[in-house]
Write a structure and sequence with these properties.
mainly alpha
Length: 153
């Protein structure tokens, strides 16, 4: 088995903080699991820390989770290892609040001439026509309307 790249060495204050966190039991399950992982991975104690497989069994998580927590603790610090990463949105939302309001108002209005009801495609075309968005799919329109419990049927 290769040598560990990220070695966790906790100070006495950090170890006491983690033990207090675990004993309280009033934190999220994820934070509690990560605290258990860090306690078991601590190499500054006499036992020298467990290997990742044993830590994963003891903390009821995966070996990969143990590796990630260990890495975040060494690179970013104890608090970073305990708290979830803030995920950046991959794409910006197509419709802001005003766009959603326009969509809902349009869907609640009378359908254009020649149509009995609004379709998702017609609503998408209307949003583009009124320059609310540059492009939008019927699926995005559907998801937005579903969020408001508005039914076209």
């Amino acid at each position: 088995m290769p040598a560990k790249k990220y070695r966790v060495r906790l100070t006495d204050v950090e170890r006491d903080y983690l033990k207090q966190l675990i004993s309280k039991g009033k934190v999220s399950a994820r934070k509690l699991t990560h605290a258990h992982i860090l306690i078991h991975a601590d190499e500054s104690v006499a036992t020298g820390g467990l290997n990742d497989v044993d830590i994963a069994k003891a903390a009821h998580s995966s070996r990969l989770t143990v590796e990630r927590v260990r890495k975040r603790c060494v690179e970013e610090g104890l608090e970073s290892a305990l708290t979830p990463k803030v995920q950046a949105r991959r794409r910006a939302k197509k419709l802001d609040g005003e766009g959603e309001a326009f969509l809902i108002a349009t869907a609640c209005s009378a359908a254009p001439e020649g149509y009995a009801d609004w379709t998702l495609k017609l609503l998408a075309e209307r949003l583009i026509e009124c320059e609310i968005v540059d492009s939008i799919s019927g699926e995005t329109v559907r998801k937005t309307l579903k969020k408001t419990n508005l039914s076209l049927g």
